Amino acid sequence: MRQEFDVVVVGAGVNGLATAWWLIKRGVKKVAVVERFAVGHDRGSSHGASRITRSAYADPLYVALMKVAHASAWPALEADAGAQLIHKRDGCFFGNPAGMFGDYLAAIEGADVDVERLDAAEGRRRFPMFRFPGAVEVLHDRTAGLVAAHDTMHALHGLVRAGATVLEGVTVRAIDPVTRVLDTDRGSIRGETLIITAGAWAGALLPHLNERLAPILQTVTYLDIPGDPRAFPVWAWRGDTVDDFYYGLPEFQRAGLKAAHHLVDGRRDDPDAPRGEPETVRVLEFMSTHLSSAPRAVIATERCLYTCTDDEDFILDTVAPGVVVGAGFSGHGFKFAPLTGQILAELALEGKSSVAAFEQSRARFR
Fold it and tell me: Can you tell me the distance from the alpha carbon of 36 to that of 38, in angstroms, rounded to the nearest whole number?
């Protein structure tokens, strides 16, 4: 038998759940969320204890969107969840102004966000856990913080279950964008509107997007360091090349300082059979160079499957009548989820979004 709904969301990662939450808030009665695994699974990019939020960005558009996310979208989710999901923490972002870090410096100019530009000496005074070797500048981002990622997923799941049908363990094998029927291993499902937020599997479901979406497996490390790993800021280093990008967070809800190499090197992994062993050598080398006291050991690792576009812009668009897609969040989408969920829900219901920064630059997200 075919199941019928007003809106069907395919994929229950953080963006799919946030979209469903907004649909329920907007009064849609028959919402379904279809997830091939269990909600909160570790096969994609929405699991784990923590993420970074920040205003410091390499692009003025994302600075503007984060202003909206911080001002309204995250507070709305926290209010509905009855829980604190953003934990304020200073942000420390650094690099060579002559390299790609110069984009960060340019993007905050005139952006009216609480981000201060420092030289390396002042950076060392405020953030003594870092050495800041070489010719670097530092951004002190006072809007930054820790996103309680596990708590966010738990809160969204609870809100969505209260107002929608959540179908877990259901694999969507194909989508007919004309009839808006999903062929699944549990029978067919039809929505008056479909919203595809399937992460690394989005390209298989929407083949015309496959070339634009590259699943890339990442390694996240948890490090034993001298001193208190809870005292760190959230931080990121941006070097001279796309792949010279490292970031980290203080200890939060699990042992160890979190650090990772943001790797978008053009390779493509199979989301059903990701390759390789956890890669920690480059992270340890970077941390040994940049920390005031080198890490002692790797405590644990996690795997995370990014789904990247070539320019790391998100895809937020209507791709056929009644079919909306949110994809390519490129490893930096979690912090936007309450806002991108709002945008996707509004695109599905009205064909446009009330978020002015998105509408003014909508071609970037096609």
Answer: 7
Cβ-contact 264, 247 below 8 angstroms: no
Q: What is the mean pLDDT of residues 47-63?
A: 98
85, 92, 194 from 161: Cα distances, Å: 19, 37, 18
Count of beta carbons in the 10 Å neighbourhood of residue 31: 26
pLDDT at 135: 79
What pLDDT sits at residue 68? 98
For the chain, the residue count is 366
Q: Is the dihedral of CA 51, 98, 140, 340 positive or negative?
A: negative
CA 158-159-163 angle, to 5 degrees, is: 115
Give the CA diameter of the chain.
Answer: 68
Kindly list the structural domains of the chain, giving each domain's residue range(s) and its CATH number in brackets, ordered by start.
3-47+150-212+311-365 (3.50.50.60), 89-146+215-308 (3.30.9.10)
Question: In 3D, which of 101, 26, 46, 107 has the Cα closest to residue 345?
Answer: 26
Using DSSP, how many helices (H) and how many strands (E) does the chain show? 10, 19
pTM over 0.90: yes
Residue with tokens 């999903």: 182
Do 228 and 73 meet the contact criterion of CB atoms below 8 Å apart? no
Strands 3-10 and 31-35: parallel
